[in-house]
Amino acid sequence: MVAFLLSYFCSMNKKALLGLVVALLIPILSYLVLKYNSDRAIDMPRKYLLDTVVTKIVKGKETEDSIWHITKNIHLLNQLGDTVRLFDKRGKIFVVDFMFTSCGSICPRLTSNMVKLQQSFIRGGDVRNKIDTSIVQFISFTVDPQRDSVSVLKDYADKFKVSHDNWWMLTGNRDSIYQFAFEELKVDKFSIEPISPDFVHTSRFILIDKDRYVRGYYNGLDSSSIKKLARDIGLLMLEKDKKVPSTVFRQIIDLSWLWLLIVCAVIFFMVYMNGRRKING
């Protein structure tokens, strides 16, 4: 079959060969155009905290490169009494909030909404309510660590039926927590509500991606904002690593349906050209 195709191609005139090339390229180009447009149609969560803009010369042209803030690590105690480092959970997306257990206003509502968000990551229909811990890690920092000891946080978590598998309620050094809130997560930026540097009382949920960039601030009391947060988590799960080489050509090779379409186009073209030859002969 291969030998036949090669001999047939060699006997074709330029117009016929050009037509065959067009027949081969149309499905591939159509696939690439559709894929490109579908990728661009997705509104990915943007990065928020810009550290600086570096100007450099690339191939004789001046270009600007944005340097985004990478969230630094922090180690504290969780509700189970374990000393943990925030980014020991590599490859995860983080959802962060700030609360305290004696709060009589927004904190219980924030925790309830975070519980609902956590439950949305239950593995499909599992009757044992197993949480898919491979995707997202929930973090609640107490802003009143003097009162919120490990045991107090554990009781609070159990009260709300928190799954400890992928939700840490953290306590520890107050200065470290507040420094993390204002210097690393910038809880006071892009915020309509006033946030006191002396007491971090905010309704914000903060989204951090796998590379430790802040990718969103959300109103933890607003259902539409929480839905957007859930959507953005899903988008970040699918986000491509720009450092990894493109696999588009590998994907094309793997598309059996596309190659079947190309083979059919080639056969049709050969039959058509053969018919024209007989008519003209």
Secondary structure layout plus pairing:
Blueprint: H1 2-11, H2 14-41, E1 50-58, E2 61-68, E3 75-77, E4 83-85, E5 93-99, H3 107-119, E6 136-142, H4 150-159, E7 167-170, H5 174-184, E8 204-208, E9 214-219, H6 223-238, H7 248-254, H8 256-280
Parallel strand pairs: 5-6, 6-7
Antiparallel strand pairs: 1-2, 3-4, 5-8, 8-9
Helix pairs in contact: 2-8
Mind explaining what this structure looks like?
The structure is a single chain. With 281 residues, the chain is α/β, with parallel strands linked by helices. The protein has two domains: 67-238, Glutaredoxin, CATH 3.40.30.10; 248-281. The chain contains eight helices and nine strands. The protein has helices at residues 2-11, 14-41, 107-119, 150-159, 174-184, 223-238, 248-254, 256-280; strands at residues 50-58, 61-68, 75-77, 83-85, 93-99, 136-142, 167-170, 204-208, 214-219. The strands form three sheets. It has a five-stranded mixed β-sheet with strand order 7-6-5-8-9. Strands 1-2 form a two-stranded antiparallel sheet. Strands 3-4 form a two-stranded antiparallel sheet. Helix 2 (14-41) runs antiparallel to helix 8 (256-280). The longest helix has 28 residues, at 14-41.
Keyword list:
281 residues; alpha/beta; Glutaredoxin; two-stranded antiparallel sheet; 8 helices; 19% strand
- Our measurement of the CA-to-CA distance between the termini, rounded to an integer number of angstroms, reads 25 Å
The total count of helices amounts to 8
Q: What is the level-2 CATH architecture name of the largest domain?
A: 3-Layer(aba) Sandwich
CATH class of the largest domain: Alpha Beta
Mean pLDDT, as a whole number?
A: 80
Share of helical residues: 40-55%
Q: Biggest sheet, in brief? A: 5 strands, mixed
CATH topology of the largest domain: Glutaredoxin
